[in-house]
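ZP: hey, is the F0G complex queued? I don't see it on the tracker
AM: it wasn't, my bad. submitting now with these inputs:
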Amino acid sequence: MVEKSAKAAEAVAAKDVQRCIVSSCGGVFGLRERIYVCPRCGGPLEIESRYEPPGGLAALRRLWDVRAGSRDPRDISGVWRYRELLPFEDSAPFVTLFEGNTPLYDAWRCAEYCGLLGLRLKHQGCNPTGSFKDTGMTAAITQAVLLGARTVICASTGNTAASLAAYAARADLQAAILVPHGQITAAKLAQSMDYGAVICELDGNFDDCMRLIQELGDDPEIYVANSINPFRIEGQKTVAFELMHQLGWNVPDHIVVPGGNMGNSSALGKGFAELLSLGLIDRLPKLSVIQAEGSAPLAALFAGLDQNAAADVSKIPDTIRMVDNPRTLATAIKIGSPVSWQKALRAVLRSHGQIIAVSEQEIADAKAMIGRDGIGCEPASATTVAGIRNLVAGGQIQRDENVVAVLTGHVLKDPDYVSQYHRGTLALDSGTGNKTPISGSFRNAPERVAPTKSAILQSLERRR
Ligand code: F0G
């Protein structure tokens, strides 16, 4: 049966297309056309799938259950396990590091902190390079191999770069990364060095790097792997499949994600929409996106929308006011001009979710709380718990609702931040040379202790 279903997937994948999401255009293009935006109108592209499970939904679920125990590399990967819903033929040269398969944790302290009865954290930081980017990169690099690219490239705040570098190394492609000089964490940069990427540190910010990427994408030997690339989104949407699989196909009330360039929220929205249209779930969870206050163009736009009219997706505005000098210590989401804002906004509106911003202090404290649950994450991921706390206080999330937050990066991605928070030295540069201190509300600094048993016991006693 596995064999038969794979053949069916192959036949159907050939019918998938790339479609422009701008409703007045709707341009349709083949899967193997090397394009990132609509060649007709410049609008964002999306893969449109027409998959219908030949043996029915129950058989498809069973197939995915069986694969979870298989030794085939494509089944071990938490992305390719769901390949019926991906735009690749079964014979594709899958480039995998066995991404996905990330844990879903109960977080009791965080739940209490947010005012909820329960809260679950889906930890995408447990991917091979320590961030959610791997689930998209496995698809983008597989597509690069299919297209015969020599070099793969991305602009990055650090995680996309590390992921691209690793997957390119696996596929024996040259990797090039454009990063804003001095603005990405040492740990992320170290990963890219180790995986052998050509690292271009540019004067400017992430948005400047992203503008250059759009120019470099014209080169026929270079393949762009930013989330503007619809194949990246295809890989990343599988987190919705894996999550629902873990939850026994019971839909949570809310899914909450951080927002930067908006690829992740777009991908999750697409994943859930596909599950709904296939009939694998019976409703959409409300998708909410949380930005850092100093880098929150989409939260600002959302706050200005007429909330009654907002449910009408066709009324999505054409333009957004970008943030020229984004500021946040959550460097992963220090982005003022997100490329996928339209897709993300559409997904949030369709599901009746929210887009809000949280302060640096709220992010820092939420991050420490996630740490206290024994889970840990990088600062950008903690916007979720900070945002949920505000949404509960504002009545948009009810105390007894079922909520899942997606943590996007590993705690070791930014150890300096962690250490400064706990030592009480964390501060945000205001851009004018002034520093705004972030207090370590849940500080846990190391202390010097005399090397004796009694001194150690006294220290323990003091902290009980
Ligand atoms: N969390 C982490 C840890 C990230 O690295 C990013 C984005 C986001 C959240 C936001 O996700 O962009 O899909 O909305 N990092 C990108 C990078 C920009 O280059 O690594 P998004």
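AM: back. The pocket of F0G is lined by residues 131, 133, 156-160, 227, 258-265, 332-333, 378, 380-381, 408-409 (CB under 6 Å).
ZP: great, adding it to the tracker
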